[in-house]
Amino acid sequence: MHGKPFTIWSYDGKMVYERITEALEEFDSKYVVGVGGYGTVYKAEMSSEVFAVKKIHAPEDGEVQNLKSFENEIRALTEIRHQNIVKLYGYCSHSRYSFLVYEFLSGGSLRSVLNHKEQAIEFDWKKRVMAVKSIAKALSYMHHECSQPIIHRDLSSNNVLFDSDWAAHVSDFGTAKLLKSDSSNWTSFAGTFGYIAPELAYTMEVNEKCDVYSFGVVTLEIIMGKHPGDLATLLEGTQGIPHTEFLDKRLPPPVELVAKQVKLLVEVAFSCVHKSPHSRPSMMNITVNLSNERRPANKCETIL
Fold first, then answer.
1. Could you read off the pLDDT of 52-98 as tens digits, one per residue?
2. Which of 175, 184, 190, 203 has its CA 20 to 30 A from that of 14?
3. Phi-psi domain of 282 (left: phi exceeds 0; alpha: psi -120 through 50; beta: other)
4. pTM for the whole thing?
5. Helix crossing, 256-272 with 208-224: angle to 10°?
6. Is position 154 annotated as part of the catalytic site?
7. Of 188, 132, 182, which Cα lies nearest the Cα of 160?
8. Helix ranges restricted to H, the chain
């Protein structure tokens, strides 16, 4: 993007605040493009550029969770810069409105694509393989290449967004946690039902393997074209069933190299949703497995 109108700013928040509230006409509902757990997302056009603006829900009496999510997202996204992670350009904390400003990704969410027949068909096997690889790279970067590992904690098909070229980006870091090596990583429960690692039902200790499980569910969703449902039942019934039985029937079967890649995705996905966290692979191993090549790690850069 050329000449960003703002970065993670501290220089003139008042000017940016006024420009955004003016562009969105005081957050008029006609600009809403999505609603999340702790904020509403708007599409803002300013100076021929388009941005996504997440306005934080006003807290209820005594509620501080939205503010915590706001701070979490800022903390996580100012630590990371990766081509498959949504870019945070700035944020404003104001008594009237608090919001974050990101790049606008016009392709919508993975969930909306899979739920829309024409888009799902356009999202062919080659694009699906690339999407899984991109999500894996983003998580591997967060887990293994940052000064403090970052756990997303809420990876789901709602939180994977596409740009106009079908490149996948991981978004929504409101529940992300930076792991500390010198202290406990126990935390409050977070995540989306259907994507949460089973061990979190009885322990609140967060580690990378929680994200690996969610990645496995999202990968199965990409392969099947829908959420896989109850995984315990699915895993019990997979013995001896060819992987082609799990493929989205709206698409013609993959062929040649893409068919091999899709088969590998199925194998990787099932290894990620293993009931035992210790039996799940790391995101680094998954990325290497999917790419069949080793690349030197790029260390984290801060967007300041």
1. 999 988 766 445 667 778 888 888 888 788 999 999 988 888 778 88
2. 175
3. beta
4. 0.86
5. 140
6. yes
7. 132
8. 13-23, 65-77, 110-114, 117-122, 125-144, 208-224, 231-236, 256-272, 283-291
